[in-house]
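ENTRY TYPE: paired fold submission
RECORD: A
CONTENT: sequence, then structure tokens
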Amino acid sequence: MAALDPLDLLHFFTAQFAAQTRRISAMSIAKRGRLYHLRRRVPRRYRGIEPRETVWISLHTDSETIAHGKADRASRRCSALL
């Protein structure tokens, strides 16, 4: 059996994690331009400070698989701030 390229292993494990993330959370991820973004609703208690109903957080990737992995971490960090 041939050794796997480290990048192939990274993609495999990222895809596995992303599949689990999709089952766990219902985050809204969308491609805007060439990069993926996480869409988050602004809680009503902050509407006086932030007039937008939703904010877009860049995931800094053009790969949907990697975006799903990053979205979970970004969502948790955003929730911790709120």
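RECORD: B
CONTENT: sequence, then structure tokens
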Amino acid sequence: MNDHSIFAFRSGDGVIAPDKLELTDAELQRARVQEQSADDPAPEPETLMQRASRFIATFSAATPLKAKWPEQDAHAPDYRHLSASTIGAATTFMLTPDVVELLIGANRFDPHGMNDVIALAFRGLALGKATEIGSRHEVENATSIEVTDVRPNHSDYRCLLGFYKRDADPTKRRLTLFSGSTVPNPYYMRGYYNKVNFGVSFSTACNMVPTGGYVFRVAAHKHGTIKPALRMTDPDDLAQDATCTVLRTTNDLIFGVDDTWDTSMPYDNVHCTYVTSVKAEWEASFSSAGCLTVRGKQLTSDQWAKFQAVLNQLGSGKRCDLVLLTGRDAGIAAAMLLNGQSGDDVALRRELIRLRPGSQSAEVARLREKLGLSAGNYFGPVTKKKLTERQTQQGQPADGIFTPELDTLWGWNVFGAPPGV
């Protein structure tokens, strides 16, 4: 995982054609060469010197830091834009293909995948009722899944990852979800913090990938030691590892709206959690410095084995875009469908319509123009970075999500006039 920004070397955002669903033989070879040299993060035994340095750095701080999720949604970049929602969304609700489709449309995503299969990831969502959180780990090929909106804590399985069979026939659409995580664990968060603040040797730059729609391909992680895995791919080159604007925290162990947005090559792939119970050294039941993880061990166990089975069916080099949103997003969408508000343009603009990584529309083109970027209708890492810079300049919390509310505040008319005006 790289620690340096590459923003200066990238001037625009683009996306590959919808029908580009697999690599050619030449592209596959190029991709594999790149994968072998990539700086993919993976758990490694800690040396005695590293352990001693970490111990000293931990107690050098005035108060020992604890990895935490922001206490208020308004302070969390992926939740801030939803904190003023007026929809009475239930904590436990039914996740259906219709909910996913509403979210895809509201965010102007256009995901694609081989055999109409795309990947899903929900940050802050658990299977079953509130009383079942942590005890249920999988539901496969379902038309409806009971889920509960929670918040991540960097230690437990409080996220869901899986697949959506997005068949052209709505009656054939199916959801598969497994327990996992979409946030880094305390070990990597603290290691990066100690490296930046105390000069402690630590090789991995910890980050959190923001919600959005991302291009992925079936490939491998960590020089082929985990294969198949889903590999984050550059949106305009299916054979190239992704450039992404990710969030890094160096002032504490909380990812908040006051942290740093860094455009880099983070290697935030989808792989196994490596363990299925809390490992004391990691303070978590998963290993991640920024990758998305599915519950299971490296030697193919539990839910990871079933996740890999789908990847094997798709095949190496095949495209499988991933939509990452929060459980709160999904809960609001489910409530709007249940209440008959999904066709209410005013309510949709207020609650769900957003521009963020992966959005593609004329609205994105107008946003990019306002941000002083080159012509284009794709919201990529450059758009994300420029938007966060603009928010910071305006003295606003930098979440990098463009909302109709922000559009009105800035007077940019990106979304056009509100309905009825």
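NOTES ON RECORD B: The radius of gyration is 20 Å. Residues 77 and 189 are 17 Å apart (CA to CA).
STATUS: closed
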